[in-house]
Amino acid sequence: MQIEWFSNPEIFARLEPEWNTLLTRSATDTIFLTNEWQQTWWECLGDGELCLVTVREDDGTLVGIAPLFAETTSTGERALALVGCVDVSDYLDVIVAREHTESVYRALLDTLLRDDFPRWDWLHLCNLPAVSPTNTQLKTLAEARGLMVQHGVHDVAPILELPATWDAYLDSLDKKQRHEIRRKLRRVQETQPRWYTIDRAADLDQAVTDFIELHKQSRPDKNVFMDARMRGFFERLARILFARGWLQLSFLEIGGARAAAIMNFIYNNDVLVYNSGYDPVQYGAYSPGIVLFAYSIQDAITAGRRRYDFLRGNEEYKYRLGARDTLVMGLHICRK
Fold this sequence. Notes:
The structure is a single chain. The chain is α+β, with helices and mostly antiparallel strands. The protein folds into 2 domains: 2-155 and 328-334, Gcn5-related N-acetyltransferase (GNAT) (Aminopeptidase, 3-Layer(aba) Sandwich), CATH 3.40.630.30; 163-305, Aminopeptidase (3-Layer(aba) Sandwich). Helices cover 38% and strands 29% of the residues. The protein has helices at 11-24, 35-45, 101-112, 137-144, 166-172, 175-189, 204-218, 220-225, 228-244, 280-283, 288-302, 316-320; strands at residues 2-6, 49-50, 52-56, 62-66, 68-72, 78-82, 95-96, 122-129, 148-161, 194-197, 247-254, 257-267, 270-278, 307-309, 324-334. The strands form 2 sheets. It has an 11-stranded mixed beta sheet, sandwiched between helices. A 4-stranded antiparallel beta sheet has the order 1-3-4-7, sandwiched between helices. Helix 1 (11-24) runs antiparallel to helix 2 (35-45), helix 3 crosses helix 4 (137-144) and helix 7 crosses helix 9 (228-244). The longest helix is centred in the C-terminal third of the chain and has 17 residues, at 228-244. The model has no long low-confidence stretch (mean pLDDT 97).
């Protein structure tokens, strides 16, 4: 195995021709681990020291990427974490070709424990999908080396497995929720609503601006979350993902004004519900957020999508729309 680590952010661009190809060979192929996402997150939100590790076979084939960075905590300890951790990247992992998991994990631990590797006290691997072999193989290898390991549920990610038809979806809901969705859809129809997805690059900048404003209006905590730095991340990310065909930015208009918005990602035939917003003052009586979700789910079913993934968080509306929990794990390794 050939092992290298990099602190210069230019490594993202250098690895671009190989990165996503490796990702498709991994057990956790998610948009949050694409080269596009990882580079954008680091450039907009990254702090500390980049410590990205690559693992290659002897012939030079890339078989592993550990996109890590190091920060000094308030107690003076040095913590390694995955690029993207924690709040705005719902699924993360070490990127490993399926057929090389054990050898890559061994090489990664060997590298992290070298005397010449940047100093660290804790390795925090957040937002690991439950299906990731990192939860089992890397954990076991670390324990075998006498390292202290903490592993457990970090969060939940409710997911809706999409049926073949809209009627089948409604039938899957309990009677009360089925009635509520139908009632909300009937009521909003009185306003002659319009819902649509942005499909022209020329409309994107204004659409993202309107999405951000609706997002901020939704709740006080969302207004705090969307500071200038986060706004810059959303704006740049939207442009990059739109160009890749991965962005689905949808709006519900009532009376000709944008009343609600959803920012979804389309990846591997799944719909990933990244964020949303609505105007609760002028349009709250019409439940525009739920109505837009209903239209979006119907559209996903029509398009033959596999799943409607609400991503991390146990907000009640996700379960009312029929989602069921999947687990997101955390693995923490102490060097001491």
